[in-house]
Amino acid sequence: MSVLTQNATPGVLSLEPYKPGMPLDELQRRLGITDAIKLASNENPLGPSPKVKAALADAIANNDLALYPDGGGIKLKAAVAKMHGIDASRVTLGNGSNDMLEFLGRIYLGPGRASMFSQHAFAVYPIVTQSQSAEAVIVPALPRSHPTMPLGHDLAGFRKAWREDISIVFIANPNNPTGTWLPAEEIEAFLDFVPKHVIVVLDEAYWEYLDPALRGDVRGWLDQYPNLVVTHTFSKTYGLASLRAGYALSSPEVADLMNRVRQPFNNNSLALLAAEVALSDQEHVRKSVALNNSERDRLEPELKKLGLSWLPSQANFLAIDFGRDAAPVHQALLQKGIIVRPTASYEMPNFLRITIGTPAQNDRLLKALTEILAG
Ligand SMILES: *Cc1c(COP(=O)(O)O)cnc(C)c1O
User: Fold this and answer.
1) Could you give the CA distance from residue 310 to residue 312 in angstroms, rounded to a whole number?
2) Distance (Å, whole) CA 181 – CA 145
3) Nearest CA to ligand 1 atom 14
4) Residues with beta carbon inside 6 Å of ligand 1?
5) Any bridge partners for residue 255, and if so which?
6) How confident is the model over 140-189, as pLDDT tens digits?
7) Most buried in the list 18, 26, 246, 324, measured by CB within 10 Å?
């Protein structure tokens, strides 16, 4: 180990880089095919709204790409604020919603401090924690045998494991890679429990997929709990993962702190424009969610016929349990030109996380699984 590595902070030294899935063109090159499909990263299989594509084409043709973007993101913030019925001073924009998780880590974590999150929770929480040389308090998930929410977040366990040095709690609702969710009353009771100086991040990357009957009163919570930060993304339902845009809703005080640490131009102008236009096309969101739900309803009985089980999901993916090491199934799917997400790094080696695709993509997945499981 060279002195350069030795001299890195302890947190960074202990970090393992986030492993993204294999890109589509890489698999196509390897297999010599042109029709591979990617059901690995929970993107919207319909892509963004057609209005977004038109606006981007127009912007590239007419706008000066040499100019810096609007560093305040004024128009997008106003659109987000309007949609949520809150003041724009409560909105922070990020280069993907991960950007905001990073800001909060920089503001509130460091040596001698800790974050808390669930086992099997989103991979970025440990990365943010370790990169600040802070400690992670990882709460065991509910058991696989739990009657309603196997491998879900256990908020009672969060309380039991509470420590004075915790300064951020990350809750993913619904969670990735499990798809599990929390009843709104449980989240609210937990917000009542958490000390007022501790930030609670409610990561709602899959919020649009969450059944409206299961959603909490986020606007009311923001008024009541100044330590609450809710994050949303344009990468999933809005179909804009490539452009990197997300936002946080919080108290103006916390938004001010996030604005101090963010890079001045963290959102590029095309991302700002695309996100604003995407928000204005809620019909596309409805269409995307409806397709996801009908395809999930169609996939589940077919998976059952194959003898498989899966975790309950309120997102656009299913964590499928193969009852044994799923790595060979992952490899066999790759050979058939289908990229899915292994979850061994999430302590779920028997599972694969599979994004719900278009009807044609899902048919191809089912056919491939049928062949693979028949041996
Ligand atoms: C995909 C995802 C995000 C969003 O990431 P972006 O940086 O906005 O692309 C955040 N949280 C969870 C749980 C996710 O699955």
Assistant:
1) 7
2) 16
3) 205
4) 42, 96-98, 122, 172, 176, 203, 205, 233, 235-236, 241, 246
5) none
6) 999 999 999 999 999 999 999 999 999 999 999 999 999 999 999 999 99
7) 246
